[in-house]
Specification:
The protein is of the alpha+beta class and 163 residues long. Helices cover 34% and strands 21% of the residues. It has helices at 3-18, 67-78, 107-113, 126-138, 153-159, and strands at residues 30-36, 39-43, 49-54, 57-58, 83-86, 96-102, 105-106, 118-119.
């Protein structure tokens, strides 16, 4: 993708980010679609969409083992539910960084607890690290894969840069 195409994508993301409908902590969002195991596009009652990057987790990238399973798990957690968001910061792509909740339960935690995502390498959450350790010890989700197939997404991205 050339520079002008990236600029167009960035402008589009910023446009979506600036037209989102609710403030942090408000409920009433619905799933539009899941992009991957750590990001989804949501919509609210005003019909505006926003892209949310789940805070403190990192899911397998598209061509990594377990990527489709992770994406499907997130979709199962969100589909048909009324979603609430906690967090209002944005990442460098204009996506809202948030905890997605269903009935007061953190989906971010559930993704790590079920072995569908890693705790993000810069996360300060000891609770999430404990959930990851439990999933690892129980060999569930991506932790059931042979060790040679489990590569942290941040390391995978370094060895597979986007073109």
């Amino acid at each position: 993708m050339n520079n002008s195409m990236w600029r167009l994508v960035l402008v589009f993301c910023l446009l979506i980010a600036t037209t989102s409908c609710s403030q942090a902590g408000e409920a009433g969002y619905q799933l539009v679609y899941v992009q991957d195991g750590d990001s989804a596009v949501l919509c609210c009652d005003k019909g505006k969409q926003l892209t949310v990057r789940l805070l403190d987790i990192d899911a397998p990238e598209k061509h990594q083992p377990y990527a489709e399973d992770s994406k499907a798990r997130l979709e199962r957690f969100l589909k048909g539910e009324s979603l609430a968001l906690r967090g209002s910061k944005r990442d460098r792509y204009g996506r809202r960084l948030a905890v997605i909740e269903v009935n007061g339960e953190s989906i971010n935690d559930k993704m790590v607890e079920s072995g569908a995502a890693w705790v993000w390498k810069y996360s300060k959450s000891q609770r999430m690290r404990a959930l990851q350790q439990e999933a690892k010890e129980s060999a569930i989700g991506l932790w059931a894969l042979p060790e040679a197939q489990r590569q942290n997404p941040w390391e995978w991205r370094q060895s597979h840069p986007r073109k």
